[in-house]
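Problem 12. The chain below contains 402 residues. Write out its predicted structure in token notation.
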Amino acid sequence: MNDDNGTIRQHDPGASYQPLAGVRVLDLTRLLPGNLCTLALAQLGAEVIKVEDTGAGDYMRGFGRQVDGAGVCHHSVNRGKLSVTLDLKDVADRERFEALVATADVLVESFRPGVMGRLGYDVETLHGIRPSLVIASISGYGSNGPLSQEAGHDLNYLAFSGLLDRLRPQLGPSVGPPLPLADLVGGGLVPALLITAFVGQARQSRRGVWIDAAMAEGIALLPHVLINDLLNGQPSTGPRSSLLDGGLACYGTYALTDGQVAIASLEIKFWLTVCDLVGGLDDYRGKHEDPASQPAIRRRLTEYFLGRSRADIEAVFGGRDACVTVVRSYEEMLESDQAKARDFLVDHPDLPVPVLAFPAMVDGRRLAERGPAPAHGEHNSHVFGALGLEREPVPARPREAS
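Solution.
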């Protein structure tokens, strides 16, 4: 939450876990990728200042269910940050922006390559203002190459990466995942990792770096068995044919009377447990990776699972090392005993909506919450006042009913 002078006040017992305390981050991004990147930095203790335009600001505010005048995803991914508004085509606001840059450790932007340069703030200019600045540029395909100026969204990056080609049945079109993987990985977690790694070095050496993070590369360059086999002479045989996308009967999903079950018994010890519990597989105990045995194994597993319910599966396989799991919905996952034991949800009195916890624990507890997401331009007076360059807060917009 904010105290009277606009700074973010710590209020959580885990507040001591802030390795980035004292680091100032300027966030010029919009939408999910950059917001996730800087959320990670804020959760680690950095002061994140969202530098928004004087018009609509971050489009994230308009997405999804509206609570307290903004979308609930905005409340989640922008919590613990400050917000100021600037028009980088205005002379006075350019002075304010450059004064901010001169005090910053990190700048994150997600414009199309070349836009910052056209605004007069290419990497060389920014480093001229602040030599130790860590600059992270998040874009679809990176700053160079024939696709660098190509417009795109997550589905386009998945299409480029080769992953979308695998997300289809043997007949029919691909089906994209319901969450933006390239955005979250290539545009969120990868630049956050690199920023965290380089910011201390840049402060010490007084020499900044430029991180060129392409969302498409966040998926295209993930190392895994299929692509490494391809690199080393193993031809691709199409969807539903490899180790992890349906080629093996012991790694896939099967219908139940009231849902689905996922089986991932790749290692022999897990497969032998499945054989013991399912029955009828004695002839295939050592053949779960044998191509010729796959049709027979698949028929037996299909027959076994189709006659059983989710409750039956949990009773038979629960607590057994077999890598067999009932397929849950998002709602069921969030309500599960595992989610409760690990505190997946943060429901803090200072936050207007419940949000997802940062996906890791430190010394057995979640990272501290640092306050709610800011209103558009909420911290103009506080941030620019400290620089002697006053700017009025943006007038509050009427709150919409939730």
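Discussion. The chain is about 35% helix and 15% strand. Students who got a different answer should revisit the alignment rule from Section 12.3.
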